[in-house]
Amino acid sequence: MTQTSPAPVSAHDEHVGEHLLEVRDLVMHFPIRGSGFLRRVVGQVQAVSGVSLDLDAGETLGVVGESGCGKSTTGRAILQLHTPTAGSVRWEGKELTELPKQEMQAVRRDLQIVFQDPYASLNPKMPVNDIIAEPLKVHGRYKDGGPARVKELLQLVGLNPEHGNRYPHEFSGGQRQRIGIARALALQPKALILDEPVSALDVSVQAGIINLLEDLQDEFGLAYVFIAHDLSVVRHISDRVAVMYLGKVVETGERDEIYRRPSHPYTQALLSAAPSANPEIEAKRERIILEGDVPSPADPPSGCRFRTRCWKAEEICATEEPELVDRGQGHPVACHFAEELLEVINPDDVTP
Amino acid sequence: MSMSDPAHPEDATTTPPLDAVDGRTSDELLRVEDLTVSFPTDDGLVQAVRGVSYSVREREVLGIVGESGSGKSVSSMALMGLLPKSARVTGSVYFRGRDVLQLREKHQRALRGSRIAMIFQDPMTALNPVYSIGDQLAEAVLSHHTMPRKKALDRAAEMLDMVGIPQARERLRNYPHEFSGGMRQRVMIAMAVINNPDIIIADEPTTALDVTVQAQILETLIEVKDAVNAAIIMITHDLGVIAGIADRTLVMYAGKPVEVAETGPMFANPRMPYTAGLMGSIPSLEDSTNERLRPIKGTPPSLISLPIGCAFEPRCPLSTAECLETEPPLTETDKPDHVAACHHWQKLAAVDDPTAYFRTESEVGR
Ligand SMILES: Nc1ncnc2c1ncn2[C@@H]1O[C@H](COP(=O)(O)OP(=O)(O)O)[C@@H](O)[C@H]1O
Ligand code: SF4
Ligand SMILES: [Mg+2]
């Protein structure tokens, strides 16, 4: 199966070679197999269909979208946890899709991933000290001062180093996420891919983890790809934002550009649908209520993938895929009829 | 949108007239008094609900908010008589003045599903995968009314149409798995209102859904509620959902209500540190001030061994010796109809920004 249309690269071309991480036209398809004896491939789930992203040192790129839009798959494909179907992932100029296993191992020192469910990603049979020591051992850095480093890491993320001999189930959800972060930091990475790191946590605990991530970034100059569906959290933590829908980036730009001047109809709908914890604003709110559900990524609509739910769709949307380019909005938007909407959430917020 | 009563819904409960209960105001629909629920377990007695009292007025939306494990679900399951046999329940639940918990099983069942309906987070817990949607909706009508099956199916189609399911009549033949998550939740709403209930208890009805679908479902729920003139108890951990639809809000912590007020005033002037802490923990959707979040330290207490004093004391920035010794009751504050369970609510009233009591210091330890 080949890609149906050229991926929108124009928004990124000029920057090639300048970023810590550069993702270009990333495609990730998963085969759907029949139930017969031969388990023949009967289709493809087009989880990611031509995604391009950049990440600079020390910055946070928020990747936001609803479930199944390809956020997590993008994160995993960047780290080569999935072998991308097509496209390029460059880390410090090195092409990861062609890198021998050995060298990929070395890249993983610098580029780590933290998952949503800390419980599922921590070995329940290992004491926390061993969980955090593991990456140090794998990379031959344990013998020299390993135990002291493990203690230091626990302390760094706000846990009591004395509790290192306990097992994951003895910690609360928030503490387990801190353990996951400590392990990811063990090898002093340059960037973390954070896949819904706070989604499973209660808000009062979530806030502590967000503050921790901000503090660690200040302290070590870390770069984050912060994958989440919570629009408030993404606004809070991100420098730049990419909005995904059905395997594609539909809009990307500086955080304030996206939140103050959303220009893709999907971004506008998403922002207008997000509940705000402010009763006064909620009372004044005009919601854009989208019709229907997200189509199946195994059979995405032709042309613009959002057209089946879009109130602006016209004929061209079914026949021609809109490129992710700046049509005068100040940032790239993949919509034939992209138009700034200044009043999605709070008119008072907009500085003209 | 038109609503037609199937037969006469009033006949449904076939219960005797009610004795008015003292203190019941004219538009009070439901009153929960000192409800407690505990579960004996191997580790000890889990005190999941420790004295919950509140009332729901006709047609209002009461939001119940709190973190996971605070007893939101257990307290509402108790109203519906849906708790496991092991649960020990005390207290009273007056529905239109009559104590539901004292009713005979048969009368309880008559109330449930007709006068009081429930919507769950996961519709699959309430929908049977082996029966068509039409059969299940018709059954919901027929278990409370005597009428021809054909008429019950008409009613089912009418309800599906009302909750925004296209080609309602054809879709009666579909099975639950043939619907998307959002559509299933619409079916659940149809099921909940099919007997014209007075009150709908919705327990995290949109938590599993994406935000654009959540917006659709909440809108539908409110439309349908208005169409049948029902009240809603909206249980959620999401302060945004509460801010959007609740007239009044009750905050639960460790099995108890700790603050009850009209939603706007509560968000503007929280009078219980836990509520203030929740507000300080959520980033704003509408500005980019980058102000640091103010988390609440620690985690909720174990419901098996609760502190003697205020259950929030170990996490509270305002706590004093008094808080360690005595549990604060829900009491009136400086605002009308605004009650809070805190010895020191005046300290919150004395400052402009009550969230400022919570820590913002570095999370990075050294
Ligand atoms: N059947 C049961 N046996 C023992 N404990 C239970 C049972 N059901 C619920 N609980 C406990 O009751 C407490 C309150 O739970 P719940 O009402 O579900 O909270 P919420 O809905 O606010 O998240 C939790 O500590 C939970 O573990
Ligand atoms: S009673 Fe004391 S410990 Fe409890 S919330 Fe109020 S100040 Fe805090
Ligand atoms: Mg619950």
Short description:
The complex is a heterodimer of chains A (352) and B (366). Chain A is an alpha/beta fold.
Characterization of this structure:
The complex is a heterodimer of chains A (352) and B (366). Chain A has twelve helices and ten strands. By secondary structure, chain A is of the alpha/beta class. In chain A, a hairpin with a 2-residue loop joins strand 9 and strand 10. In chain A, helix 5 packs across helix 6. Chain A is globular and about 65 Å long. Chain B has two domains: 223 residues, P-loop containing nucleotide triphosphate hydrolases (Rossmann fold, 3-Layer(aba) Sandwich); 114 residues, 3-Layer(aba) Sandwich (Rossmann fold), CATH 3.40.50. Chain B has twelve helices and twelve strands. In chain B, the strands form two sheets. In chain B, strands 6-7-8-3-9-10-12-11 form an eight-stranded mixed sheet, with helices on both faces. Classes of the chains: A alpha/beta (352), B alpha/beta (366). At the A-B interface, helix 7, helix 8, helix 9, helix 10 and helix 11 of A face helix 7, helix 8, helix 9 and helix 10 of B. The complex binds adenosine-5'-diphosphate, iron/sulfur cluster and magnesium ion. The site of adenosine-5'-diphosphate has 14 residues of chain B, from strand 1, strand 2 and helix 1.
